[in-house]
Design brief:
about 80 residues, single chain
């Protein structure tokens, strides 16, 4: 009878470990997404500074607003 309880405890520990592992993977994926968005944002800002055409600047500013919205959404889902 003791073996039955031990195997249940081991099974529970394995499930807990798997759950923690999945949480870690999700966090690192979210962090990678955030870093990619920040790099894209930096690139867009640099392109805005170089842009001479008003239409191009408008498109870049729209892209910047879109990236800012994605970053905001990502931050609100993390907290």
């Amino acid at each position: 009878m003791a073996r039955g309880w031990e195997s249940k405890a081991v099974e529970s520990q394995q499930q807990d470990a798997e759950s923690r592992k999945q949480t870690t993977i999700t966090k690192s994926s979210a962090q990678q997404t955030r870093e990619r968005l920040l790099l894209d944002r930096t690139r867009i800002l640099e392109e805005i500074q170089r842009a001479c055409d008003k239409r191009l600047r408008g498109q870049l500013e729209a892209a910047l607003a879109f990236l800012d919205k994605q970053l905001t959404d990502l931050d609100t889902t993390r907290t």
